[in-house]
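INFO  loader      accepted 1 record
INFO  loader      residues=183
INFO  predictor   begin
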Amino acid sequence: MRNLLPLTSLVKSPGFRVSPLHWLNQRERLQQRFWRYWVIATFGFPIAASLGVSLLGLDLSFPDCQFQATFGFPAPSCGLTRSFLALVRGDLPTALQYHLLGPFFFAFFVTMVATALTELLWRRSLMAVYAVLVHYKGILTLLVVALGYYGVRLWALLANPALPLGLDQMGWWQFMLEGARAL
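INFO  predictor   done
INFO  writer      dumping tokens
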């Protein structure tokens, strides 16, 4: 049987709020708080670094891509950092050119950090938000789209293809080629 805090001590404590967390023991509460801090640190760091570099003019030297150094071709996430930096500057077309999914990931990161901060401040679980954000069908769809996009970028970068029927002169393909060459 779990060692639960007596409900009477919670009701008598100042600032008592009815939430799912009041049934948890002290250890489970600390674990939940730890995960909220982990979410803030993990998803907040790219946002903070982007803000610091773009708005404050900080000179953070990002290391070379170890994936590209090892395998000789860019990683699936190549361009995300530059996309985040362009987003913070307000340059959406450049952000999309660096990585088409950059704005989506940036919005996802901001939502995760905001949700974790809200949970810590309100002392309530917002599991419904996480359920929407981390739904397995959404993750699977995003994975398929990201891998498809990565495949097209690699093909555009390494093969320098010419599309049939003059499609390679279309603006969207030129946009994709410029982004692939920026890797």
